[in-house]
């Protein structure tokens, strides 16, 4: 096994003079090129800065030092060659590329590259530096953070570029990315450039991708839906909560919104269109139609069976709303009360008839105040006749209030604390 003599950073070697065997300076290190068909890229040549398209092949390099690069022969004996199609430029295609830090659930940048010079192996790339030290090193300011820990990722964990316009990706990303919380996926996507977002979401199954999309900022949602073809966009919208789909379609250009609605299944399209008809700052626009609404005559045993069936599509299962034949709201039963009741009891006997609700025309602020005051996880939305239209969850309220009031708002803090206590 070859012994590594020295370790350098790519940024430290840039600009160093290249000296031939006769002691003549033939240029300086302007860049390196690598071939990447194995576990790690191997340096195949050094650009001298004289000709953008020419480089000194690595086999002519006798020594790489902190002050200079020494060639094995005289300049006249070395034949510079052009970059091959199988080689890529380090500065152009590797440095400053984005990769995913799985552990931190974030997008990071290749700030520098660690190389090892060995007597036989030549110049090898060992790791990428994703830390602040790497960035400051390139600026000549590393002395400011001498006590800061290095942050490296080995090349063995990075996937080769599929083409010279791709960002680097971790080899283990698909397996580990799928273990990320959708909110973390949303954060990563929002740090990506416009052209990478939709493609990145294809690493996930549909449900995880949809949940991540629902957690993104509205502008990012619109960008991604606009990048997808109509079939993919409809698939995403159909699997999103109706209120989320309605919010996206409401902000799309009218012609595109109508085209996507026409392609959605009938029931989904009708539900979304109803939500789109409500003014923006109303409970109707904020609610979702995916809730558990059952009849007074249903028994506890029957309701539990229905919960098992409907839970995957319901926004929450912690409250079961009791409706009459016309859909009017009669009462509510908590999941806890349902579990403690006898199997043969019907909902009429265990429901609470006094239900806190909001009107579909109520403002977002009023909805938040009611959820906060009564410590609710969700509040039902009704119309003038008392017919239940949907529910608004605490999540929906937080999504609206955090941008408006800020994270330090007392009312929002109370909602968060109470929700944590109830879950």
What would a concise description of this structure say?
The protein is of the alpha+beta class and 423 residues long.
Describe this structure in words.
- With 423 residues, the chain is of the alpha+beta class.
- It is 37% helix and 22% strand.
- The protein has 19 helices and 23 strands.
- The strands form seven sheets. The protein has a five-stranded antiparallel beta sheet.
- Helix 9 (230-239) packs across helix 11 (254-263), helix 10 crosses helix 12 (266-276) and helix 18 (394-405) runs antiparallel to helix 19.
- The chain starts with 5 loop residues before the first strand and ends with a helix.
Mean pLDDT: 85
Strand order, main sheet: write it out.
9-6-5-4-10
Cα shape: elongated
State the low-pLDDT regions, or none. 404-423
Terminal-residue CA separation: 56 Å
- Tell me the fraction of residues in β-strands, as a range: 15-25%
Report on the biggest sheet: 5 strands, antiparallel
Determine the number of helices (DSSP H or I, runs of at least 4 residues): 19
Question: How many β strands by DSSP?
Answer: 23
- Cα-based radius of gyration, to the nearest Å: 30 Å
Q: What structural class do helix, strand and pairing data support?
A: alpha+beta
What share of residues is helical? 25-40%
Task: Provide the fold topology.
Layout: E1 6-9, H1 10-13, E2 17-19, E3 25-28, E4 31-35, E5 42-47, E6 54-57, E7 61-64, E8 69-71, E9 81-82, E10 87-89, H2 90-93, E11 98-101, E12 106-109, E13 112-118, E14 122-129, H3 132-138, E15 152-154, E16 158-159, E17 169-170, H4 173-177, H5 182-191, H6 197-201, H7 206-214, H8 218-227, H9 230-239, H10 242-251, H11 254-263, H12 266-276, H13 283-286, E18 293-295, H14 300-310, E19 319-323, E20 329-334, H15 335-340, H16 347-350, E21 358-359, H17 364-374, E22 378-382, E23 388-393, H18 394-405, H19 410-422
Parallel strand pairs: 2-8, 18-19, 21-22
Antiparallel strand pairs: 1-13, 2-3, 4-5, 4-10, 5-6, 6-9, 7-8, 11-12, 13-14, 14-15, 16-17, 19-20, 22-23
């Amino acid at each position: 096994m070859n012994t590594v003599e020295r370790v350098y950073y790519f940024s430290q070697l840039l600009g160093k003079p290249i000296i031939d065997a006769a002691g003549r300076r033939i240029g300086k290190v302007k860049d390196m090129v690598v071939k990447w068909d194995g576990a790690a890229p191997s340096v195949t040549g050094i650009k001298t800065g004289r000709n953008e398209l020419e480089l000194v092949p690595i086999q002519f390099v006798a020594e790489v030092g902190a002050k200079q690069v020494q060639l094995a022969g005289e300049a006249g004996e070395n034949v510079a060659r052009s970059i091959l199609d199988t080689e890529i430029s380090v500065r152009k295609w590797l440095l400053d590329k984005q990769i995913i830090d799985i552990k931190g659930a974030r997008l990071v940048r290749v700030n520098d590259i660690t190389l090892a010079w060995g007597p036989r192996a030549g110049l090898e790339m060992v790791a990428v530096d994703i830390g602040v030290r790497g960035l400051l090193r390139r600026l000549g300011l590393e002395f400011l953070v001498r006590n800061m820990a290095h942050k490296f990722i080995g090349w063995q964990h990075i996937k080769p570029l599929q083409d010279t316009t791709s960002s680097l990706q971790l080899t283990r990303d698909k397996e580990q990315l799928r273990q990320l919380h959708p909110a973390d996926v949303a954060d990563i996507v929002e740090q990506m450039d416009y052209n990478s977002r939709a493609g990145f979401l294809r690493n996930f199954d549909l449900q995880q991708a949809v949940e991540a999309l629902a957690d993104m900022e509205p502008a990012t949602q619109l960008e991604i839906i606009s990048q997808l073809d109509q079939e993919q966009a409809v698939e995403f919208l159909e699997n999103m909560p109706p209120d989320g789909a309605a919010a996206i379609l409401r902000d799309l250009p009218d012609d595109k919104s109508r085209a996507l609605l026409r392609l959605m299944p009938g029931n989904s399209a009708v539900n979304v269109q109803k939500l789109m008809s409500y003014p923006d700052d109303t409970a109707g626009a904020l609610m979702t139609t995916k809730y558990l609404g059952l009849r007074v005559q249903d028994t506890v045993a029957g309701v539990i069976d229905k919960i098992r069936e409907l839970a995957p599509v319901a926004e929450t299962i912690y409250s079961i709303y009791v409706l009459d034949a016309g859909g009017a709201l009669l009462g509510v039963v908590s999941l806890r009360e349902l579990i403690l009741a006898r199997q043969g009891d019907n909902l009429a006997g265990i429901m609470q008839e006094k239900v806190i609700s909001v009107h579909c025309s109520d403002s977002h602020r009023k909805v938040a105040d009611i959820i906060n005051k009564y410590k609710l996880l969700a509040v039902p939305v009704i119309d003038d006749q008392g017919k239940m239209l949907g529910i608004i969850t605490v999540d929906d309220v937080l999504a609206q209030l955090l941008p408006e009031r800020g994270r330090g708002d007392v009312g929002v803090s109370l909602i968060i604390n109470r929700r944590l206590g109830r879950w």
